[in-house]
């Protein structure tokens, strides 16, 4: 088995690297990819970002959002999380065989003291009934790729803030995440393996998987990228994982309702639909007053990209207060993306 340690801490760059290696790695033997990243949320290929994420909290905390190419639910990562991926020949593993895909990880954790770590449910790893790892899988060409997270020392308090959905506000055809009781694996490990730095845990996990005392023994099995590799990865980073159209526009069609009552304004109720990342229909109802016909604004909104930056730019040429008295452009954006 070969391995690669991601040199970056940006989830978008790591996913671009992962995709590139998925396409180009020789498949004569399995390859293990390991990476650690700054706070981020990764949604599944079929998910609706707006049904999964508290965008106000995401913005306030500077948390990166992106979308992966595999299915499954939304996950939160920070520097206390270790992600892993296995790339194998398609004929080496049946699709959906999460037990086989995660076996090296589970065995290594058990050797480090987490004796009760085990596969559970459809695609998760548990210890004492608590989830510490979620996994996803997809195949392309002759390769099968399985990816998982390992909650080593994650700030669990963030989960309830950033991964949030109000079912009364959003009705979507996309896949919603299922919340489960979660835990970090660190407290279940032997004391000598409860490292302060997640990178030390990563290196120990590697030693356990390869059954070596130090990483110098497996230096020949480490993958090294060329300048040409890096250039291709950078292009993929820009065109896919850091591209708003991929992150927001890849979700299935969905409908959203927003409602607020403000003194001096009245009730403002928004009903709109999104398709391929753009506003496909928009209606504004309420008991508010306005100088101009509200339909001028709603008609102009149709076809606009549904993200805060694009709509803020659009509203620079359209004063919402002319249509909804005492309701500013920022009030409108806050209601849209609450």
Characterization of this structure:
With 338 residues, the chain is of the alpha+beta class. 30% of the residues lie in helices and 26% in strands. It has helices at 11-24, 49-52, 55-61, 98-111, 159-162, 198-210, 227-241, 244-249, 294-301, 308-315, 329-336; strands at residues 2-5, 31-35, 40-43, 64-67, 75-77, 81-89, 118-120, 124-127, 130-140, 143-151, 170-172, 254-262, 266-275, 278-286. A seven-stranded mixed sheet has the order 1-2-6-10-9-8-7, with helices on both faces. A four-stranded antiparallel sheet has the order 11-12-13-14, with helices on one face. A three-stranded mixed sheet has the order 4-3-5. The model has no long low-confidence stretch (mean pLDDT 86).
The N- and C-terminal alpha carbons lie at a distance of 47 Å
Backbone structural class: alpha+beta
Number of helices: 11
Biggest sheet statistics: 7 strands, mixed
- C-alpha Rg, in Å? 23 Å
Unreliable stretches = none
Which geometry do the CA atoms define? elongated
How does the SSE layout of this entry go?
Elements: E1 2-5, H1 11-24, E2 31-35, E3 40-43, H2 49-52, H3 55-61, E4 64-67, E5 75-77, E6 81-89, H4 98-111, E7 118-120, E8 124-127, E9 130-140, E10 143-151, H5 159-162, E11 170-172, H6 198-210, H7 227-241, H8 244-249, E12 254-262, E13 266-275, E14 278-286, H9 294-301, H10 308-315, H11 329-336
Parallel strand pairs: 1-2, 3-4
Antiparallel strand pairs: 2-6, 3-5, 6-10, 7-8, 8-9, 9-10, 11-12, 12-13, 13-14
């Amino acid at each position: 088995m070969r391995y690669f340690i991601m040199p970056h801490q940006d989830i978008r760059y790591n996913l671009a690297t992962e995709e590139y290696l998925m396409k180009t790695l020789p498949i004569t033997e399995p390859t293990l990819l390991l990476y650690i990243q700054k706070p981020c949320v990764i949604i599944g290929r079929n998910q609706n970002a707006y049904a999964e994420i508290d965008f106000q909290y995401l913005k306030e905390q500077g948390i990166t959002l992106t979308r992966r190419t595999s299915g499954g639910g939304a996950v939160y990562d920070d520097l206390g999380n270790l992600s892993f991926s296995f790339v194998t020949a398609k004929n080496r593993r049946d699709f959906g065989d999460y037990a086989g895909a995660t076996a090296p990880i589970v065995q290594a954790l058990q050797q480090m003291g987490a004796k009760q770590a085990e596969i559970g449910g459809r695609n998760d790893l548990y210890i004492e009934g608590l989830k510490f790892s979620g996994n996803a899988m997809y195949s392309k060409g002759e390769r099968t790729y399985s990816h998982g997270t390992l909650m080593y020392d994650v700030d669990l308090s963030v989960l309830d803030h950033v991964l949030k959905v109000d079912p009364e506000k959003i009705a979507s055809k996309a896949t919603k995440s299922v919340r489960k009781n979660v835990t970090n694996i660190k407290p279940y490990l032997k004391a000598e393996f409860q490292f302060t730095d997640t990178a030390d845990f990563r290196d120990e996990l590697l030693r356990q998987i390869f059954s070596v005392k130090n990483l110098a023994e497996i230096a020949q099995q480490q993958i090294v990228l060329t300048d040409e590799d890096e250039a291709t990865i950078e292009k993929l980073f820009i065109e896919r994982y850091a591209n708003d159209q991929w992150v927001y526009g890849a979700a299935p069609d969905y409908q959203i309702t927003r409602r607020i009552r403000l003194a001096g304004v009245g009730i403002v109720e928004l009903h709109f639909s999104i398709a391929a990342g753009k506003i496909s229909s928009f209606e504004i109802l309420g008991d508010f007053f306005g100088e101009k016909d509200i339909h001028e604004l709603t008609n102009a909104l149709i076809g606009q990209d549904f993200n805060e930056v694009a709509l803020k730019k659009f509203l620079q040429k359209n004063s919402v207060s002319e249509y909804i008295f005492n309701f500013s452009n920022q009030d409108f954006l806050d209601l849209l993306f609450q």
